[in-house]
Automatic annotation (TrEMBL):
Main location: membrane
Family: Belongs to the cytochrome c oxidase subunit 3 family.
Pfam families: COX3 (PF00510)
Start and end residues of each stretch annotated as Disordered: 1-20
Name used for this protein in its record: Probable cytochrome c oxidase subunit 3
The keyword Disulfide bond belongs to this UniProt entry's keyword annotation: no
InterPro entries on file: Cyt_c/ubiquinol_Oxase_su3, Cyt_c_oxidase-like_su3, Cyt_c_oxidase_su3-like_sf, Cyt_c_oxidase_su3_a-hlx
Reaction catalysis annotation: 4 Fe(II)-[cytochrome c] + O2 + 8 H(+)(in) = 4 Fe(III)-[cytochrome c] + 2 H2O + 4 H(+)(out)
Domain Heme-copper oxidase subunit III family profile: from-to ranges: 1-203
């Protein structure tokens, strides 16, 4: 009771965030510039897809029905699980628990690395069946948007490797670097959720 009274008298409020974290945007500002730019580029593709879908709805619906929704759902679960462990690993890094942070990021890398493998498992039969980018307008958008996203996934996996190396080699890694990697990976996740809804689910 005495300690509490002394803290109150001194104006200490444990419920308030530290001054150096209050209102702070996680990660490096340069990454957020890149993320926002990427989101705008994808937004242009999303708008174009919706425009042509409205004009050729029957074609898009018929083509959409030829996609494997189960594989798309598996990839969605993989990325959501990966992002969950990225968030847990980043929170552990902020708390100073490098061991738990490292485990979280390694698990996230494993789930994230499964995404390209599953995507190739999906693409190979489709291409073998003649469903190439030149097949029709739907499949042009499908391959362009999922292909661009796959490139972002690969880049994200590389960034994750650098974050893991930083967690391995330093007892106190630079938190802004960890947060930067997390911000990029969460963007990759959000983009896939939109792609999954547009390409696989929307009717």
């Amino acid at each position: 009771m005495t300690d509490v009274a002394e803290d109150s008298a001194a104006g200490v409020d444990d419920s308030q965030p530290d001054a150096d974290t209050a209102g702070r945007v996680p990660g490096e500002s340069s990454m957020w510039f890149f993320v926002i730019g990427d989101l705008l580029i994808f937004a242009v593709y999303f708008v174009g897809y919706m425009y042509f879908r409205g004009r050729q709805q029957e074609l898009f619906l018929h083509s959409q029905a030829r996609l494997n929704v189960d594989i798309g759902a598996v990839n969605t679960v993989l990325l959501l699980t990966s992002s969950l462990f990225v968030a847990l690993g980043t929170a552990a890094a902020r708390a100073g628990d490098s061991g738990r942070a490292l485990r979280g990021w390694v698990i996230a890398l494993v789930f994230g690395a499964a995404f390209p493998l599953v995507k190739l498992f999906e693409w190979i039969p489709e291409i073998g069946a003649g469903l190439t980018p030149g097949h029709n307008l739907f499949f042009m958008y499908y391959y362009v948007m999922t292909g661009m996203h796959l490139c972002h996934v690969v880049l994200g996996l590389i960034i994750m490797c650098f974050v893991i190396r930083a967690l391995k080699t330093s007892a106190k890694p630079r938190i802004s670097f960890v947060e930067t990697g997390a911000s990029y990976w969460h963007m990759v996740d959000v983009l896939w959720l939109v792609l999954f809804a547009l390409l696989y689910l929307m009717r």
